[in-house]
Amino acid sequence: MKNKPSKAQWEAMGEAERIAVVRGGRAGLFQIQEGFKKGSEELRAACKDAVTGFIDKDTRAKFMEIGKVLELFQRAKEDLQVKLEEAFELLQSLKENLRVKLGIEGELSWLALLDALQVVLDIDDEAEWDEPFAALIHELESDSAYAFIERLGQELKRSHRQRQQEPKRKEPRPTPPKFMPQQTWPEARNMAIALADGPSGRGWQDIVGEIALRHVREDDPIQIKLIAGPSIDWWGMPATYELLRDELREAGVDAALLLNEVLYLALEHPGQMFSLDSLIEAIGWDPRSASEKNECRRWVWRKVSLFENMLATGQRRWLYSHPDTKKKVPVAIVDRLVILGPRLMPEQKAFDNSEPPFEISFKPGEHLEQYRGNRKVLTDYGNVRRIAEIPAKQASGKWARGIGLTLNQFWRQSSKAALITHVTDGGKTNRQSAVFRPFTRRELLTEYYIADPHVEDILNGPNPKRAREYWDGAVKHLKLKGVIGSYKSKAPIRDGDKSAWLDQPLDIRPANEGLRDTIEIAKAQARIKRSPSKAANKK
Predict the structure, then answer these.
(1) Phi and psi of 159, rounded to 5°?
(2) For range 251-255, the mean pLDDT
(3) Peptide bond into 505 cis (omega under 30)
(4) 396 near 477, Cβ under 8 Å?
């Protein structure tokens, strides 16, 4: 809500300052007065029926004291020039009456009442002060006043209980770092692609004989297996193939971004507690209302629970040096990549563990633990937070997220063969650049992360020009966020040639962290080639 003070700011204000804050919402206050002026008798009857209906006999008599507040409003109706200070006192009385009669222990702040109104009335956080009050009057004067008061009371109780349960911390809450490299090692890459393929179902197959699915990529020895493990059992639903597919349908590229960040936290900050809100922010989501934020928390909680039920299986194609013996050994895995650690949970009223925790921690699986810190085995590249900052509300933003993840993967896999050059900007600046093999739009939009909406559907639809608009918009996003440093097409194509547009060679070069990673990898590879002994061992 615009200009709404925090709880600490509100408590620190004097009476005059509080009145000045409320004066900013004077339109809403006068709407309350006018609402009671126009229909005070109907309002009195509606409130009386509602109050009588949802409390027991023992507390009914006490609760009817709310009539005193209504009488104050009735007297205010007779004086249309009522001062703002008096209106403020009336609202304070109404708030206190709600606190007592709804059985809420402790203080019920004015901001808590506003937040509850926003949730029940589904009002955006950016709304003006007067909108909740106008909607409040409308609801109380309607035939459904009883149901509205009951919903408001339940929301006040729920939010108050949650604030009471939330642990008090003296130190600041930890947040994920602003720099988080994308995890490009084969098992992480394939698990991220499997999540991105969840909505389309590409590559996912039922495993006969057990309630499990597997994700298979052509000519790739690493497969991903999804089991109906303990985390899914917590959701209180029977384990079926359809349940697993339902969870995958809600995954997509956003889940792939979340996986990259969770893997980084598990490897670099094992056991450290992070709030779900900080993870929501890390993947670039910006929920506007309390109800939307709760939905985002549930989505993140379900997805990290899903990660714990996913296993990577198979053996990599290449041999790696053992850290102790230095001998070349294969890297094989049948293990979870990430394990949920300790968490701070709210009080559970249900029989399952579906309520999202306040904070959560991660640790790597046994396979990852033995390779922690070994960047030759657990490779990474760029900064995935730059990609997560791209808004995904429009198609160009959705495309940019998938293209960015794909480019980081391609750049990392091709960095050893990259050509490091020096370029000039307008004849003034001499800077380094990395030249890679040409990429195509078909690769970047379909090979790893399928574009949403699918590029083929757009090209074959009634408005194929939108594909170019989405692509140009995605490239612009990636340039602005510092993922792409240079972009050029290498061969001209005829207008209207859809296949040629998809397969047009493109010279796309990284910027910032990606460029630094490529230069570091290319220089290390050059040193190996110059050293006869290392080159012989490499072979």
Answers:
(1) -65, -40
(2) 94
(3) no
(4) yes
Q: Burial letters for 195-215: b for 16+ Cβ neighbours within 10 Å, e otherwise?
A: bbbbbeeebbeeeeeebbbbb
**Alpha carbons 489 and 507: distance in angstroms, whole number:** 6
| 237 or 372, which is more confident | 372
Select from 439, 504, 518 the least CA-distant residue to 468.
Answer: 504
pLDDT at 170 over 70: no
Nearest by Cα to 137 from 38, 223, 247: 38
Specify the residue for token string 């490299």.
181
Residues 6+ positions from 270 with CB-CB distance below 8 Å: 341, 361, 362, 363, 364
Shortest CA distance to 312 belongs to which of 192, 182, 181? Answer: 192
Q: Tell me the two tokens of residue 379.
A: 């490779």
Q: From CA 310, how far away is CA 201, in angstroms rounded? A: 16
Reported as type and span, the H/E element at residue 529 is helix 512-530
The three-point CA angle 337-341-344 to 5° equals 145
How would you classify residue 380: left for phi > 0, otherwise alpha for psi between -120 and 50, otherwise beta?
Answer: beta
